[in-house]
Design a protein that fits this description.
Layout: H1 2-9, H2 34-40, H3 44-56, H4 61-73, H5 78-89, H6 95-109, H7 124-128, H8 142-145, H9 148-156, H10 162-173, H11 177-188
Helix pairs in contact: 5-6, 9-10, 10-11
Length: 190
């Protein structure tokens, strides 16, 4: 579907959520549908950020930027983005602190503050070439920054069989991170 194409064009770790059913409207991802799509259709870099956000109700700067621009690329408006981030962050902080410390940066990402730049989602090479995440950070490409064991665990969350997982792992071991990600998407959506 066009929605899956959009997800794959905008380019860990499982988390416990209640079961969610497939969205009915396939033209646009809604905030309520993010949990569903994050499980199998988000690329691992975004799934990891989304999972960390859901578990910790916070992401550091580069994680917010990487995931925020991805959501923007999926078609979320600035108001939807603020609602999304606020719904997670305000599980740990109050609304005033969110408005003071985070809402400006979201509006800035959408070109509504500061230099009024219209920032685009990061492409795979930008994600791959990010500085390795430090303690408590989750940005970047898991195929590049995770150990083989952690990548194998991550790949397992996409429902692949052993031979399919090995195809993905072989590409990771060859440092073909984009190819590994593409194969993971293809194999989990056949």
């Amino acid at each position: 579907s066009q929605l899956l194409i959009n997800l794959s064009n905008h380019n860990s770790i499982d988390f416990n959520l209640t079961e969610v059913s497939a969205p009915k409207d396939t033209d646009k991802i809604r905030l309520a549908d993010l949990d569903f799509y994050s499980r199998k259709s988000f690329p691992p870099c975004m799934k990891g950020l989304f999972t960390a956000l859901k578990n910790q109700h916070h992401l550091k700067h580069f994680g917010r930027l990487q995931l925020g621009l991805y959501l923007k690329g999926l078609g979320f408006t600035v108001d939807e983005a603020i609602m999304f981030w606020k719904s997670e962050f305000c599980k740990k902080i109050d609304s005033d602190k969110f408005e003071k410390n985070y809402a400006y940066n979201i509006r800035h990402m959408y070109g509504q503050e500061g230099k009024k730049n219209d920032y685009k989602p990061w492409n795979c090479m930008k994600v791959i070439n990010q500085q390795a995440p430090g303690q408590g950070e989750y940005h970047g490409c898991p195929f590049k920054t995770f150990s083989d064991q952690n990548v194998k665990q991550l790949v397992g969350t996409y429902g692949l069989n052993a031979s399919e997982s090995q195809i993905v792992m072989d590409k990771k071991k060859e440092n073909l991170y984009q190819v590994a990600c593409l194969r993971l998407f293809e194999l989990s959506h056949k």
